[in-house]
Design brief:
The protein has one domain. Helix content is about 60%, strand content about 5%. It has ten helices and two strands, in the order ααββαααααααα. Helix 2 runs antiparallel to helix 3 and helix 3 runs antiparallel to helix 6.
């Protein structure tokens, strides 16, 4: 996921100690200048990655899936970094969070909600590229675990598109809802966040449920969610919604597509088998 954006501090900074968006940035040595985010230290980054990888290995029972997921996470976050740097929010940094995932931090807020939407969607869209090496290794080795790893990568990107705070989907779809009415955004995202917490609890994903629950409770206390950012125009809202739907459809198609070779039978049976595997993953009884 990217920096928690609208769920950052009340002073309008992105989710961590960052620099406010200004026309002219003060040098770090200037009196009163905000600190520059130097990123995660190398020892802590390595330790966090090993902890997350070990946790995924424990949860999935496969080191292959764990390695694929970690690689997919880095590619996803790097998509956010590329967009942040391109849109003047950099130099952005990637942080690995043990047992949860990752996060990209910019040095300043996006200049507009449109830029925020592009940053939010850049992670899931770019993150799908991580599927290609996993599929390539499967073709070379015939080890089905790599296709399960590819599925896990696709699901990382798809789940991040859920419009629940602080996931990427909330920052891509939230501004569209706010263009209609700010209270609609807040009510919808809190409701969806509550459903996401319930899903986490009901499927045994307790750490995710607690994390999302804290984010939802925090959003209840917020005032202006994106202070100082230029609101979406109606054309931008339309483009944002279209990009959100296209990205979500692409992630879902890839997730099902990489599972079909693992199923047996003709294409219709393979599709049904892939849907069955995906349904069990997300906790649906079929």
């Amino acid at each position: 996921m990217s920096d928690p954006g609208p769920w950052g501090s009340r002073d309008g900074r992105v989710a961590t100690p960052t620099v406010q968006a200004t026309d002219t940035a003060l040098p770090a040595s200037s009196p009163g200048a905000p600190p520059i985010d130097k990123g995660q230290s190398l020892p802590w980054a390595i330790g966090s990655t090993l902890l997350l990888g070990g946790f995924l290995w424990l949860m999935t029972g496969s080191w292959v899936v764990a390695v694929a997921a970690i690689f997919g996470l880095f590619v996803h976050e790097y998509g956010h970094v590329l967009a942040m740097n391109r849109l003047g929010m950099g130099p952005a940094k990637v942080y690995i969070i043990p047992f949860l995932g990752g996060m990209a931090r910019g040095q300043r807020n996006p200049e507009s909600e449109w830029h925020g939407v592009l940053v939010a969607l850049a992670g899931p869209a770019f993150g799908l590229l991580a599927v290609l090496p996993a599929v390539g290794i499967w073709l070379a080795t015939g080890d089905d675990a790599w296709m399960l790893g590819a599925f896990f990568i696709a699901m990382i990107n798809l789940v991040n598109l859920a419009p629940a705070p602080p996931l990427d989907g909330s920052k891509a779809l939230g501004p569209v809802l706010a263009r209609i009415d700010p209270m609609l955004e807040k009510a919808a995202l809190i409701a969806i966040g509550g459903l996401a917490v319930w899903w986490g609890v009901s499927t045994g994903r307790w750490i995710l449920a607690v994390f999302l629950g804290i984010a939802v409770l925090g959003s209840l206390r917020r005032g202006d969610w994106r202070p100082g950012e230029k609101k979406l125009t109606w054309p931008e809202a339309g483009r944002s919604l279209a990009l959100f739907l296209i990205t979500g459809a692409a992630c879902a198609a890839v997730a099902i597509g990489v599972l079909m070779p693992l199923a047996e039978g003709a294409p219709p049976e393979r599709l049904a088998g892939a849907l069955d595997i995906a349904g069990r993953f997300i906790g649906l009884d079929r």
